[in-house]
Amino acid sequence: MTIQAYKRTKKINKQIKVNIERRTVIVDDQLVYFKDVPIPSWIELSLIDVCNRKCVFCPKSDPSVAPDTHQKMNMRLIDKLSEELKRINYKGSVVLCGYGEPMLHKDIYSISRKLAEASFVEIVTNGDTLTKDSIRKLYDSNVNKLLISLYDGPEQVSKFKTMADSAQVPKDFVILRNRWFDEKEDYGLKLTNRAGTIKVGKQDSIKTFSHCFYPSYSVLIDWNGDVFLCSQDWQRRRTMGNIMLEDLFEIWTGKMISKYRKNLLNGKRCNSPCTECNAEGTVLGHKHAEAWKKIYKITK
Questions:
Q1: What span, in angstroms and rounded, lies between the C-alpha atoms of 243 and 116?
Q2: Cis omega before residue 102 (within 30°)?
Q3: Among candidates 108, 99, 119, which has minimal Cα distance to 223?
Q4: Which of 83, 57, 90 is nearest to 200 (CA)?
Q5: Alpha-carbon 279 to chain mean position
Q6: CB 43 within 8 A of CB 252
Q7: Per-residue pLDDT averaged across 82-98, rounded?
Q8: Given CA atoms 227, 231, 233, 234 in this order, what sign does their dihedral have?
Q9: Nearest by Cα to 102 from 119, 117, 124, 86
Q10: pLDDT digit string (tens) for 13-61?
Q11: Using H for helix, E for strand and C for coil, what is the string for the chain?
Q12: Using an 8 Å Cβ cutoff, are 96 and 116 in contact?
């Protein structure tokens, strides 16, 4: 490895570290209980099942695996979720990203305003549709953080910094994430196989990790209300429930997710899609994991 390549790798790792530290503040500092049960602190919403890009490290690059269906979340679901989060005194973050590009949803501003009544709101976008006016409108819609993934090159940094300055939003509102690197540098990401879906780049083997805390602190909610363990399950293999049919708290404490949570806290990746997943899964959520271990009487 050349000195220049080493410096680039160190820079990428630093970016990943900063992102983890930012999420840690939300995840591990927001251990809240409802009915003596630790509730999630990180909820991802997949607002729309379409993306305008086809990045090689994303399952959307293969339409046979993750086709664009153009299905989108409706406001009735958002309203229900927001009211339920208020009822359980939710203190964590709702992140708009998931299986598609959230800025392609025409109701993004209404959705953000409603969710902001009950939670910290983040949006993760490729930035392609952003203008100074839309950035300002997102801020005025009570979005807390706008994370822009830059895939084209370093020239995008000055472009979006100028755009954010023109929008007259606080300096810490927009977070730029360098993602223009190639396969040799893992695209600037911590690559995973998305539960056995993709193989690009240099990745850990499936059996590298056993324990996982994702179901202890987070869930992903799809456009139709289906609840999944986390954002790794791109093939949507196993739903935990649907929030249009039952309350999120009922799903969070239900038999299905409890089975996965117990097994993963015991270091057993024995259920699909976990059997095919190579994500580390223990980077965040330590406090939640310890709380659940006490409830399940897990001593390991």
A1: 19
A2: no
A3: 99
A4: 57
A5: 13
A6: no
A7: 97
A8: positive
A9: 124
A10: 666 677 777 788 888 777 999 999 999 999 999 999 999 999 888 899 9
A11: CCHHHHHHHHHHHHHHHHHHHHHHHHHCCCCCEECCEECCCEEEECCECCCCCCCCCCHHHCCCCCCCCCCECCHHHHHHHHHHHHHCCCCCEEEECCCCCHHHCCCHHHHHHHHCCCCEEEEEECCCCCCHHHHHHHHHCCCCEEEEEECCCCHHHHHHHHHHHHHCCCCCCEEEEECCCCHHHHHHCCCCCCCCCCCCCCCCCCCCCCCCCHHHHEEEECCCCEEECCCCCCCCCCCCEECCCCCHHHHHCCHHHHHHHHHHHCCCCCCCCHHHCCCCCCCCCHHHHHHHHHHHCCCC
A12: no
User: What's the CA gap between 156 and 180, in Å, rounded?
Assistant: 10
Query: How far is the CA of 295 from the CAs of 36, 218, 290, in angstroms?
Result: 9, 17, 9
Round to whole Å and give the CA distance between 247 and 230: 18
Report in angstroms the alpha-carbon separations of 134 from 48, 154, 165, 230. Answer: 18, 22, 13, 29
Query: What value does the mean pLDDT take over residues 121-147?
Result: 98
* Calpha distance 208→273 (Å, rounded): 15
Residue type, 58: C
